[in-house]
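Hello support,

Our group uses your service weekly, and this is the first time we've seen a run hang past the timeout. The protein is ATP synthase CF0 subunit I. I'm not sure whether the cause is the sequence or the server load. Input pasted verbatim:
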Amino acid sequence: MKNVTDSFVSLGNWPSAGSFGFNTDILATNPINLSVVLGVLIFFGKGVCASCLLRGGAIEQLEKARARLRKVEMEAEQFRVNGYSEIEQEKLNLINSTYKTLEQLENYKNETIHFEQQRTINQVRQRIFQQALQGALGTLNSCLNNELHLRTISANIDMFGAMKEITD
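Update from on-call engineer: The timeout came from a worker crash unrelated to the input. Re-ran successfully.
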């Protein structure tokens, strides 16, 4: 034990080559110890440092990916909301367009019904007029003889002549 204590006490004493002991010269041993420690750390610690650096980079990339995911989710939500709004707007436009088309069809239907009613009324009037005319002609033909017929024609001619003089 005395050798160990002596080696700590005498700082300037170097042990001879071939013997083992403690070198207490701080200036001489620190660079050697530091280089050994650094060598061991570099050799064994490079995997740890690399994994720490990779882990830090992976965490940073993960945070960036999460931020991008949140951004994309917000954009998707915005597109979904806008899509629903556009769908609702298109639905309203389609309903309005259909309502206008139905209204036009209703107007066309009413116009067609009115036209058909007028056409039917005119046909009925023509038939009634023809029947009345035929009935009147039949009555006149059965009641009039040739002399009465000639007097009626003369009276009508005189009446038209009088009307012509009034208008001239």
